[in-house]
Amino acid sequence: MGLSKPYVTGVFNNVSSKQQRKLPIYCVERDDKKISISFDAAWGADDTDEILQILDKHGVKATFFLVGDWVRKYPDKVKKIAAAGHDIGNHSNKHPHMGQLSKEGNKKEIMAAHEEVKKLIGIDMNLFRPPFGEYNNTVIEAAEECGYYTIQWDVDSLDWKELGTDPLIKQVLDNKHLGSGSIILFHNNAKYTKDVLDTIITGLKQQGYELVPISQLIYKKNYYLDHEGRQKPIKDNKQASLKIK
Questions:
Q1: Structure confidence by residue, pLDDT tens digits, 44-74
Q2: Which of 40, 47, 87, 154 is catalytic?
Q3: Of 39, 114, 145, 210, whose Cβ has the fewest other Cβ atoms within 10 Å?
Q4: 172-194, pLDDT tens digit by residue?
């Protein structure tokens, strides 16, 4: 499962000070109140049907990041997720620590899962979330070269800590990072996720948020990332002088 990573503005030990620090997309600058819910699926699948039912009840489309091994073990669940209109994202093939792999090793992990999903449901994924939320320049470059946007989150539900329902609800609805363009992290098989999802979605809607899949939240071109990993659109010539995607 993914682990919470705070915003970081420094440089990893394995990146020299002369290299540009690459960041994934943690959240998105938006003028509207659109946000995204995401689920990492790496281990079990017992709660997946109930999660899909809750999302359907609220008319919400989410993003599911799937590990290749999970896809092979639960192909019917993958088909259900896709049939319901949710985003399917790549969460690696075997859930390794990808920062310890070479660029070629990263590409093999990403593309093995990519081909597994394409073979099963015929789609080409383009959203990637590294296992454990761990990344470095090599990981992000490998994903880019495979045609992927690397996606993190700015609101961690902490469902993987299994702290109970009330702490989980408060962790999301009262999160200091929650705002327009936020990406919320859940796991499909964490103990309390299915029990709080209805309440959390209701609470988010009461706060005025519209929940959309990540593919509809992020900018696909003419953007840049600030030092916190916030994706921003290019609006003027000064911003255009930054690294444009």
A1: 999 999 999 999 999 999 999 999 999 999 9
A2: 40
A3: 145
A4: 999 999 999 999 999 999 999 99
Range of the domain at 125: 27-240
Backbone angles phi, psi at 230, to 5 degrees: -85, 125
Q: State the total domains in the chain.
A: 1
Give how far Cα 225 sits from Cα of 27, 203, 234, 242, Å.
10, 29, 10, 9
Examine the residue annotation and report whether 40 is marked as an active-site residue of this protein.
Answer: yes
Sign of CA dihedral 180, 38, 1, 103: negative
Whose CA is closest to 2, among 60, 66, 88, 77?
66
CB atoms closer than 10 angstroms to residue 38: 27
| 76 catalytically annotated | no
Q: Which residues pair with 244 in a beta bridge?
A: none
The one catalytic residue among 31, 69, 187, 227: 187
C-beta of residue 27 within 8 angstroms of C-beta of residue 184: no
Q: Indicate the average pLDDT of the chain.
A: 91
Q: Are 74 and 45 in contact (CB under 8 A)?
A: yes
